[in-house]
Amino acid sequence: AQSVTQLDSQVPVFEEAPVELRCNYSSSVSVYLFWYVQYPNQGLQLLLKYLSGSTLVKGINGFEAEFNKSQTSFHLRKPSVHISDTAEYFCAVSDNNYGQNFVFGPGTRLSVLP
Amino acid sequence: SAVISQKPSRDICQRGTSLTIQCQVDSQVTMMFWYRQQPGQSLTLIATANQGSEATYESGFVIDKFPISRPNLTFSTLTVSNMSPEDSSIYLCSVEAGPGYGYTFGSGTRLTVV
User: Fold this and answer.
1) Running DSSP on this structure, what letter comes out for residue B58?
2) Class of residue A101 by CB neighbours under 10 A (exposed 0-12, middle 13-18, buried 19+)
3) Sorting pLDDT into bands at 50, 70 and 90, what band is B84?
4) What pLDDT score was predicted for residue A66?
5) Are strands B19-25 and B4-7 parallel, antiparallel or unpaired?
6) How far apart are CA A37 and CA A90, in angstroms?
7) A46/B102 CB distance under 8 A
8) Does A109 touch chain B (CB under 8 A)?
9) Interval A72-85: pLDDT, tens
10) What is the pLDDT of residue A88?
């Protein structure tokens, strides 16, 4: 069985500062990894994904994440955040690309302060 | 990638009643997924709906409480039956966005049971 840990439930950061949202996973098989964002009162939007290939993945809105197999991590980063990045961020893992065994982490609330 | 229309976007319901949530996809998909997001929490998979067969429910969810229909490859409904205040959540449907594209989510239905 897979699981996802997001150690930080809340991350406050000032505008234009860098941010890293941490995600660790456990799985006994190869994984696919995802980051989703949920803006207030909205559904989920895919930020980026790692399926294979380069371990550094670039997504929308200037976000990127790096897959580290040895540390079983998939941390999300952005060099300079904006007020509009305030949202809930969910890391998710799947052992396939067909929807089964798709597990979400508990989420990290990013609050960007002026 | 697939685009999902989900409705209603929100509703306030009396306890003991039922609400049916609809998801329409702009392309044919094999599997559709229904999630629940309780207040302040992450997403939990309720069930997987395949066209032409009964939905597969996750542990803790039963068909009598959450009946699902999947009449064709572009549409599904989830009913929340005999509602209680504990059912107040956001309900989201999801489909595979396409091979290698992760998953697309509907905008969610924010349900409040009073």
Assistant:
1) P
2) middle
3) very high
4) 95
5) antiparallel
6) 6
7) yes
8) no
9) 999 999 999 999 99
10) 94
> Quick check: A18 and A77 in contact, CB under 8 A?
yes
Burial status of residue A9 (CB atoms within 10 A of its CB: 0-12, 13-18, 19 or more): exposed
Q: Measuring CA to CA, which residue among B27, B26, B23 is closest to residue B35?
A: B23
The total of other beta-carbon atoms located within 10 Å of residue B21's CB is 23
A7, A24 in Cβ contact below 8 A?
A: yes
Structure tokens at B52: 């032409």
* Six-digit token string for B30: 């094999």
Measure the CA–CA gap between B114 and B112, rounded to whole angstroms.
6
Could you tell me which chain A residue has the CA closest to the CA of B90?
A43
Q: Other CB atoms closer than 10 Å to residue B20's CB: what's the count?
A: 14
CB distance B41–A107 less than 8 Å?
A: yes
Residue whose structure tokens are 């999947």: B70
Nearest beta carbon to residue A99 from set B33, B92, B107? B33
DSSP lists the bridge partners of residue B6 as B23
pLDDT tens, residue by residue, B24-78: 999 998 889 999 999 888 889 999 998 888 899 999 999 999 999 999 999 999 9
